[in-house]
Amino acid sequence: MLRRFLLSAVDSPGIRRFTENSRMARPLVDRFIAGESFEDALPVVRDLAQDRCVSLDHLGELTTDDSIVRDSVDIYREVLGKLSAEGLSRRVELSVKLSSLGSALTRDAFPATLAAAQEICAAAEAAGTFVTVDMEGAGTTDLTLSIVRELRRDFPQTGLVLQAHLHRTETDCREFANAGARVRLCKGAYQHPSSAVYATRDEIRESYRRCLSILMSSEAYPMVATHDPVLINTATQLAERTKCGGNDFEYQMFYGIRLNEQARLAESGAKLRVYVPFGTEWYPYFMRRLAEHPSNLFLLMQGEAAAGPRPARTHPS
Fold this sequence. Notes:
This protein is α/β, with parallel strands linked by helices.
């Protein structure tokens, strides 16, 4: 119930204004968001890249202004230039939401969105890295996968995200596993019609296990995006039973969440990638992180959200 409320609050102007102006929320926002500009986030990226990889996300979604789409493309190009200059490109990929590139502008947004995504992918390839296309909410899955199929024609390293809570995902996993794609498998944090998703935690876990087994038994490159210790253990066991060695898959976790487990995985020699978001449009992302970890909401309401220093400025141990 609370999770559903928090997800619905993503679209609430009143709750958004309250959260964005709340002093109590700021320390918790800083826990999940690396900064409002790439210059803010760059020290975080440098630090993490010492012993792990990074997926860098410029926050913004459901863009309804052509000029903002152009701004998003330009920001990613600028970020890629700085990553290349710093020698970080080989350890830092980009995560891109298609709705930040205009997929929500019109009913026929496919050509313009694809062109913007192709421009970013070309710049990423020139910088020595690649792009993973994020998955979003209800009604976007088919468009997203169609654009990924087109991107992979010229940029085969392009990754995609599949959400295990959707009934359709096992079929989608089989398609992209057979194509040898980079696939980030997550549980799913966006709202969808109840008829399209698994309802319980156990059902979602079982779906995740089935999907991950498909990916790890194929030529795909699985990206195990979860903080669930049960599923992390499942991934370890599956890797031992299949062809997947240490360089054949990776774990992924959000910046600011389960820092001790991130450190443990990195120290064990596993490949770990940290999803690092930055930007001024942080509110929707922040609310989805609260929905995944509702206990943080009570800290915020009690004014105790600053239960520790901002984790990004020091190397987790």
